[in-house]
Here is the input.
Amino acid sequence: MFVSYKWLQEYVDLTGITAKQLADRITKAGIEVESVEVRNKGVQGVVIGHVLEREQHPNADKLSKCLVDIGEGEPVQIICGAPNVAKGQKVAVAKVGAVLPGNFKIKRAKLRGEESNGMICSLQELGVESKLVPKEYADGIFVFPSDAPVGADALELLYLDDEVLELSLTPNRADCLSMIGVAYEVAAILGRSVKLPTIELHENNENVHDYISVRVDAQEDNPLYAGRIVKNVKIGPSPLWMQARLMAAGIRPHNNVVDITNYILLEYGQPLHAFDYDRLGSNEIVVRRAKKGETIVTLDDVERTLTEEHLVITNGKEPVALAGVMGGANSEVCDETVNVFIEAAYFNGATIRQAVKDHGLRSESSTRFEKGIDPARTKEALDRAAALMAEYAGGEVVGGVVEANTLQLKDVVVTITLDRINRVLGTTITKEEVAGILTNLQFTFTEDNGTFTITVPSRRRDIAIEEDIIEEVARLYGYDHLPATLPIGEANPGKLTPYQAKRRKVRRYLEDAGLFQAITYSLTNEAKATMFALETAEPIRLALPMSEERSVLRQSLVPHLLEAASYNRARQVENVALYEIGSVYLANGENELPNEKERLAGVLTGVWHAHLWQGEKKAVDFYVVKGILDGLFALLGLENRVEYKQAKREHLHPGRTAEILLDHKTIGFVGQLHPNVQKQFDLKETYVFELDLEALLNVEVDDIRYTAIPRFPSITRDIALVVDEHVVAGELQKAIIEAGGELLKDVSIFDVYKGDRLPEGKKSIAFSLRYYDPERTLTDEEVTNVHEQVIKAVEQQFGATLRG
Amino acid sequence: MKERLQQLQQEALEKIEQANDLKALNDVRVAYLGKKGPITEVLRGMGALSPEERPIMGALVNDVREAIQQALEAKQATLEQAEVEKKLAAEAIDVTLPGRPIRRGNHHPLTRVIEEIEDLFIGMGYTIAEGPEVEQDYYNFEALNLPKGHPARDMQDSFYITEEILLRTHTSPVQARTMEKHQGRGPVKIICPGKVYRRDNDDATHSHQFTQIEGLVVDENIRMSDLKGTLREFARKMFGEDRDIRFRPSFFPFTEPSVEVDVSCFNCGGHGCNVCKGTGWIEILGAGMVHPNVLEMAGFDSKKYTGFAFGMGPERIAMLKYGIDDIRHFYQNDLRFLQQFNRV
Here is the structure.
């Protein structure tokens, strides 16, 4: 809402307060003033001139030579390029020495040999935005009314000496979508009174019912419809002050009738519509829901197809307006209009919102209906419009109002105690202070022993309950006066849940292990949604996606991590190690919330470790990633409960992929990207993993129990076992541990060999076994006994032989 | 004999002096103190001396041996030291060459901000509540005093999946769910961090996915002044001890009264700069007293219980704190961006 500071003074005395100060006060009290626009863009020395003579410039077709009276001394000669300049006009003249926007100084000049002592200005040249200039003056100079006083300051007449406050209104303050509403707010803030416009309505002795009747068939959509007839209007420009105020408020002037409806819309917040009575096509107005497929051509010359969800104003047969949004072209007021039917109605916001949405058509009117107008002022606004049309369009107001009124206006009464106000706010405001604030708001109230009974005026539709009153008191009392305290009451210790605490440790571990935390989007496309997923479900699609790329909820974190790796690689960041913790979404069926499961995933590619001058360089490989995961499982106390199983999974290298099992249940995978997928994402050799984080973090783990530090020496024996090449180390190791019994404490692999020195199809794996008894020193013999059992076991189970 | 001994001592000391390495020194030792050395020989000749002379001469021999021995030891220590120094000199390295790098990743900047905020509120007795990102319309809107048909819940602004299910547009549904779980009994003291979604085109200042942190306290006798005190405490811990806050009246459907909360500019201290656009204040939070409808819908008696709620955007805080100019950075995962947050 744009509020002209000059115009606002019609309703509230602003003596002693500048526009800037006013803006600060309004902002502090709750409505943000986004900007204060100074309308004068540096213009000086522009006055009203009277064009006494105009003739063709002798040397230029497109120039006129004018003799202009500017109210000082002899009339001056001015050369003017505007096509519409004519003898007898009152125009804006920038005198010699004047300044126009952009610090453009007007000097005495010779144009094609003719002297020019100033410049006749268009509105644009004075700094008015083109979209606000009346259409008839769009390409020429602005012509003032004939009574404009010669020599007067043109800026003042055009309100270009004004300042405009732009209010950013929250949806609850629709009351301030009108000058009167703003005046009430300002009056409350400043503690001053409001002057409402006086309406001098002179009706003739005809009866409006002889001209028109009104019927509303959709009363819920339209509880109040009122109208008046103004006869014998003469379409022409509206008074200059009205045009100037409309332009200040950001509305382009058209003609007197249309300008008056717009002026009332701004003044009262009540949208009006003026129909050409003679073009209505009947003597009745019927308000109803549109029929499916019915059409209307609106004022913007667009044909719109309607549905039963839209409300229309009809002449009993066909629509003449899309209610509350825009009038129809068929009944539009035009230059030939003589008799006007003015509509003032109260439409349901939701109904109007539907039409706005369906037709992508938002207007000053629809905005106000959507947010809610004050129905108690509807008829007053209608009267004021009729009175102005009589005054400024030479019309004659037909006696009476036609209306269909099922509106039930009930006073909103709120009762609240002083104690409650202070208890909620934590303040010690006095009874007198509350009374003062309510008085300034011009709320009617009674007070009895600290209990206030308040009747809320109909313009403040946002106030209905105690808390609303508390807010009014708080904002006008001033939040700066609110003390700062801390809650009193039982203090609970704050802490993370075990899951949250472990999740933080997982993050920190992975970061200390060299991975960076990524956060990627949850929405993806259909193809990527299920790629790599540990569990898959029906894809969950948005009803109205903004793009195909962000239309489905992900079931794995890996695809977007691959995109991130690819994004980096495309920017010459080749070495990437990222992890993400985030949700995947598994459908549970229509209208059920999906299962949201937290996953941990990672992507690693490029060089893992490089210390080049010492000759160290290591690319990421399967075992780098596995090592990181092993560390993670150890961190969580799960190292002995996790297994890796060779696996084949879609999109992964068939020979370099493992499924990860926790307590024999699959909880994730790690593997190298399949070359085809690698290519698809434009990556080099890349490894990925994804784990069910909830399974990892929710599993019960024993608390740490101290075990005695070894007091006796341990004995280490190494063996190299030759086995068939398909035998996997993990199985071999498991067998060794089993056979080694209690005395075998550690088994580690220190060599793997495959090659010329072994028969075809064989490999050798070397293990180091450490034996230890916490109670005593082991003898060589005892160890040998166990060790031989171990060797026997692997011989029997795997056909392993000792490598010579 | 005496002269002979003095001469031997003289000779030996000179040779010790001349010895350049441990081997040469050892040769001197063997030559003079060895069993076949000249001093032993002198000792053997002592039999020819008179009993009076013998102890005198014996003492003299010992003195000479002692002197040579001492000289040998001293020289040995010097030579050994020299040897060590030589070895160390040969072992010198260029300490300016780079060390073996330790690979280290780090938190995403949003996590950094979120964890810092979480910890501040945990310190004030809050717990962290989490909830689903795919939500029922009821918890996302209705339970928060946004009934059906309310303009703020337009299909155009939210990602709906069905008419009743959508991607949550704020973390407030977690508040509604948590209150419901409390079955009308306070106190409730939570903060809710999480991802939220809005139907916005991604650009420098908008992202269809972003994060929020909201806080909620419900108990008997919670006052708006408690909200102010709590947020002032938060602002000071988060942005510096000399920060102040101010409330500006505002509107949210789920709180009444509602306020926007500004923190005095941590860049200029409130004098006005480009971070605070010359105002000295930076808008950080939205807050207010929980609307009685919200309390009642969650099963709390709004006559007995009051509460406050607040919400903020980690993206905005991170952007202000670190001077980040484009919200898309948070979701591109460019390592050149992420790596900048790798220190205290």
